Amino acid sequence: MKIKRLIIILVIVVLAGGGYVYYSRTQKQGAKNQLLLYGNVDIRQVQLAFQEIGRLEKLYVQEGDRVKQGVLVAEIDAVRYHANLQRAQAELEAQKQVVNRLQAGSRPQEVAKARADVRAWEAKLADAEVTLKRLQRLLRDQATSQQKVDDAATAEKAAKEALEAARQALDLALIGPRKEDIAAARAKLQAAAASVTLAAKEVADTKLYAPADAVVRDRIMEPGDMAFPNTPVLTLAQTDLLWVRVYVPEPDLGRIVTGMKASVSTDSYPGKTYSGWIGFISPVAEFTPKNVETEALRTRLVYQARVFVCNPEHELRLGMPATVRIDLDQQKPTGPARRQDVCTGRAEKLPVPENKSL
Length: 358
Hints:
Blueprint: H1 2-32, E1 34-48, E2 54-59, E3 66-67, E4 72-76, H2 79-104, H3 108-140, H4 146-175, H5 179-204, E5 207-209, E6 214-219, E7 226-227, E8 234-249, E9 261-266, E10 273-287, E11 301-309, E12 321-327, E13 338-339, H6 341-344, E14 348-349
Antiparallel strand pairs: 1-8, 1-12, 2-4, 2-7, 3-6, 4-5, 6-8, 8-11, 9-10, 9-12, 10-11, 13-14
């Protein structure tokens, strides 16, 4: 009996040892084919501010509200801006009439009046000439004074000048406005149109809209506060795209490329994984941050990367610690980075993040 027990124990030990060796080799092989990275969830944040100065009149959202792109979130008092727009529109309409008048030229009635003025002065000149000749004959006969002759000569000369002025006025009426005057009026019309466009933009800027789908993080101002262009009213946290900021050790940099699929897990939801993909790898090396844990030495250089994550249920939040696993046996994508069908069920082009300090 003792021998049988000894044999059974020996067999159990051998099987256990073999299993341990097999398990260890499997784990090591799995570790070689998988890259494990640690980081934190990150999102883009937008601080919304008005482009114009005014008293905040209405605020339509609260902290935690989800807003869609293009939704009105706040308004400032727009009375002054509407009045400015109306004034600019009136000036534009007045200048349009000036241009129309210049382009139309002289009215028929104006031309007719100018011709009548010419005929009238022709008649006055003829009468002045006859009067002057009559007085000159009387002066030779000593029947009138020299003063009357001089007055008649002055009247005749004045009638000639007035007739010439009337003829010039008729020519101007026939020719119409100068092309330079029309060009200047058109330039003023363009300036008036620009003033209307600017005033309309100022009116539109009294309303604040959400630039993207987001969550209201902070409601900084309240109705009644004065809003200025450099003073944020709301802080929005964009929900798309959401990523995990990780740091890749230099020896592992050549094993990954943008577009590779990844899985993300967090301590907040044990056992649950989120699909993702590598969307950005920094071209610049840096020292490992203090708040990042890696198995490599902290003195080694690392490369910052973004692993975009599908978050359909909005469970991931800013700053949440996350673990990223990348299967190195997967086929590496070629060409430009593309949004994988892990979220939408179809391939879409991946937005290229800003190449700046993240």
